[in-house]
Write a structure and sequence with these properties.
11 strands, Butyryl-CoA Dehydrogenase, subunit A, domain 3, Acyl-CoA_oxidase, AcylCoA_DH/ox_N_sf, binds ligand LQNNLAPS, binds flavin-adenine dinucleotide, fatty acid binding, alpha+beta, about 650 residues, three-stranded antiparallel beta sheet, FAD binding, FAD
């Protein structure tokens, strides 16, 4: 099963080898539990381990393999980030996609050797979403052939870039490019920030950390201001866009090619989110198979809480989602790599499809992941609330994905633009022009679903029902938009009056895509034992998801209320059928205890002994009497006693 999850036996077994190798190297392990450390201690500890990784990486992984590096980082550094997180997640991808060969020779090679540390500085105090209104300006000075970077007011300060605050000495900075008074929109520049020897900020740079956050606190998200700071013309990233010495601007082959680092993260983060969801579910499912509370048969001992249908309903549909997401994530990464290669040859035809797909997936997957993690926490009762479970940290890190790389409700609108265009083609009788991801919009719906009438409910009927729902909502939302426009609203006003419905269409389209990706993967499985278990999980998934969106199919009679009952019964059937495999389904992700960092979710299942040992190790228990008691509580009680006398 691990080979299914990790798209092949090769990587699944490499993960095992890497974990086994690390198990023998205590210097790579957390020196104490992360929840017992201050932010400064965590950053120090993470930097220590990062240095070890850089020194010994070649002995443990093939450094050119992204997935091996990712696993090494998960084991050693963990999810709370590290001082070079953005270096790998965005700085290197931005240089790879946007720097010219000559620039790559100069900077990318140094970045890969870790001679310099970089980040991606785009968001500002006043603007994150609306890139066209960024306020940092890069004005071209023809005389000196330099760009002058400047922060004209406080809202123009860069704000949020990860590892900008304290760690990075370079950044890919996004600024509005002005040449001879003309605004050429957001462009990307390679900018030195700190002296390479002293790490002191360079003259003209104001820089620092933005303070603690909900989670992800090992990362020093930062602020950055420029005071008429000069960089050479050749620091504009020039793989696709160019500015000649005389200020002539050479247009890129696609207007949004500069957004590639964002599309890179959106493509990869689907897998990252699936893994975080699987972390939380591993912890909650293992714990639920140890925790006994209450009885189902009063003549029998207390049961494991995992026997309760409510607990199964709380956890198993999310287990199915974690599988669905990791399968969809693998497809997305393949598409991204393909588009990256095609862009190299000047073919930008798939950029819009990739952008639409990743915008929708990013939004739906992060939202459902956060929901699933929070349910996993609650499924652990009181112990879920303790940082010993580590689920609160997993939640805090994962939920950031709802905001970063484009706020979810905004990104759903990007997909909606694509859907509306497609709906326009359907309306104009040009369905043959629809791309493969939206071809179903042009198909004709059956009048009712046959979900309960096929002898062995296959997935085709479910897919047809999801298609019906997504098609109906897309056409309806587009109609609403066109209707407002026909009545005289501008497109922007009409859009704003239709966005709740448009975003619903985007979610339904994306959920259909996820179901289809799951079906595609299960169809490929050759081993009959695996196929059976994955088919059960997929059946659970389609019934759960369909129930969640059934209102759309009930309102036009596509589904009847008796079919709804059928779907519910199927759901309950598969909850019970999956129960014996539940622990194996989470164990199949093969997370080591070191990677999970959860006292509650350890493989040995010795929950109570482990919790007691953890609590005793808490910094507060180092002494029996805290200074706060000596200083305040004892005098308080003493004075209360004295006043009574
Ligand atoms: C297999 C390996 C396993 C390893 C697994 C690895 C797992 C690793 C996991 C995770 C790592 C994650 C760690 C992340 C750490 C945190 C990082 C956080 C970093 C950041 O947040 S950086 C800042 C991100 N900021 C944003 O995302 C801003 C959001 N805003 C925008 O993107 C844009 O402004 C906008 C898209 C919303 C709008 O742009 P605008 O220029 O105004 O364009 P529009 O007018 O709306 O659209 C015009 C037209 O362009 C099309 N378009 C827009 N963007 C793109 C694009 N990128 N590509 C193609 N086309 C695009 C748009 O659709 C319109 O088209 P149309 O006119 O409709 O045809
Ligand atoms: C953990 C984390 C790490 C980050 N790392 C980086 C980084 O490394 N580099 C970097 O540059 N940035 C980074 N960011 C910033 C991040 O990319 C932005 O916060 C994000 O893009 C959202 O933008 P915003 O903060 O401006 O939100 P806003 O756009 O102000 O959103 C506020 C609200 O307004 C709504 N809204 C905004 N515009 C519209 C619209 N057009 N239609 C409808 N509703 C709208 C949103 O839906 C939301 O409800 C990070 C953020 C976080 C949380």
């Amino acid at each position: 099963m691990a080979a299914q999850i990790y798209s092949g036996e090769k990587y699944a077994s490499r993960r095992r080898e890497i974990s086994a190798n690390l198990a023998k190297r205590p210097e790579f392990h957390d020196s104490k539990p992360l929840p017992f450390m201050t932010r400064e201690e965590k950053i120090l500890e993470s930097s220590r381990k990062l240095t070890l990784i850089s020194k010994h990486m070649n002995e443990i992984i093939d450094p050119s393999d992204k997935r091996e590096l990712y696993h090494l980082n998960c084991e050693v550094l963990g999810i709370e980030g590290n001082p070079m997180a953005l270096h790998g997640d965005m700085f290197i991808p931005a240089l790879t996609a946007q720097a010219s060969d000559e620039q790559q020779e100069k900077w990318l090679s140094r970045a890969l050797r870790r001679e310099i540390i970089g980040t991606y500085a785009q968001t500002e105090l006043g603007h994150g979403t609306n890139l066209r209104k960024l306020e940092t300006i890069a004005t071209y000075d023809v005389d000196t052939q330099e760009f002058v970077l400047h922060t004209p007011q406080i809202t123009a300060l860069k704000w949020w870039p990860g590892n900008l605050g304290k760690s990075s000495n370079y950044a890919v900075v996004v600024a509005l490019m002005i040449i001879k008074g003309k605004n050429y929109g957001p462009q990307t520049f390679m900018v030195p920030l700190r002296d390479e020897k002293t790490h002191q900020p360079l003259k003209g740079i104001t820089i620092g950390d933005i303070g603690p956050k909900l989670a992800y606190n090992i990362v020093d998200n930062g602020f950055l201001g420029f005071d008429h700071y000069r960089i050479p013309r050749t620091n504009l990233l020039m793989r696709h866009t160019r500015v000649e010495p005389d200020g002539t601007f050479v247009k890129p082959p696609h207007a949004k090619i500069n957004y590639s680092a964002m599309v890179h993260v959106r493509s990869y983060m689907i897998t990252g989110q699936a893994i975080m969801l699987a972390y939380a579910l591993t912890i909650a499912t293992r714990y639920s198979s140890v925790r006994r509370q209450g009885q189902i048969d009063t003549t029998q001992p207390e049961v494991k809480v995992l026997e309760y249908q409510t607990q199964q309903h709380r956890l198993f549909p999310s287990i199915a989602r974690a599988y669905a997401f990791v399968f969809a994530g693998a497809e997305t990464v393949r598409l991204y790599e393909r588009v990256l290669q095609e862009v190299e040859t000047g073919n930008v035809s798939l950029m819009a499809d990739l952008h639409a797909l990743t915008s929708g997936l990013k939004s739906v997957v992060t939202h459902q992941t956060a929901q699933g993690i929070e349910q996993a926490r609650m499924a652990c009762g009181g112990h879920g609330y303790s940082q010993a479970s580590y689920i609160s940290e997993i939640f805090g890190v994962a939920v950031g994905g709802c905001t970063y790389e484009g706020e979810n409700l905004v990104m759903l609108q990007q997909l909606a633009r694509y859907l509306v265009k497609s709906a326009g083609l359907v309306q104009a009788g040009q369905s043959s022009k629809l791309g493969p991801l939206v071809a179903y919009l042009g198909a004709k719906s059956d009048s009712t679903s046959l979900i309960d009438r096929t002898p062995t409910p296959g997935f085709a009927e479910y897919v047809k029902t999801f298609q019906h729902i997504a098609r109906k909502q897309t056409l309806k939302a587009a109609q609403k938009l066109f209707g407002f426009m026909e009545k005289g609203d501008t497109r922007e006003v009409a859009w704003n009056k239709s966005t709740v419905e448009l975003n619903r269409a985007s979610r339904l389209h994306t959920r259909l895509y996820i179901v289809e990706a799951f079906v595609r993967r299960v169809e490929e499985v050759a081993d009959p034992r695996l196929k059976e278990v994955l088919t059960d999980l997929l059946r659970l998934h389609v019934n759960y998801e369909l129930l969640d969106v059934a209102a759309y199919a009930l309102e036009d009679g596509f589904l009847s209320s008796s079919q709804l009952d059928y779907i519910r019964e199927q759901l309950y059937f598969y909850l019970a059928k999956i129960r014996p495999n539940a622990v194996s389904l989470v164990d199949s992700w093969e997370f080591s205890d070191r990677e999970l960092r959860s006292v509650l979710g350890r493989r040995d299942g010795n929950v109570y002994e482990n919790l007691f040992a953890w609590a005793k190790a808490s910094p507060l228990n180092k002494t029996d009497v805290l200074p706060s008691v000596d200083k305040y509580l004892k005098p308080l009680m003493e004075s209360a006693r004295a006043s009574k006398l």
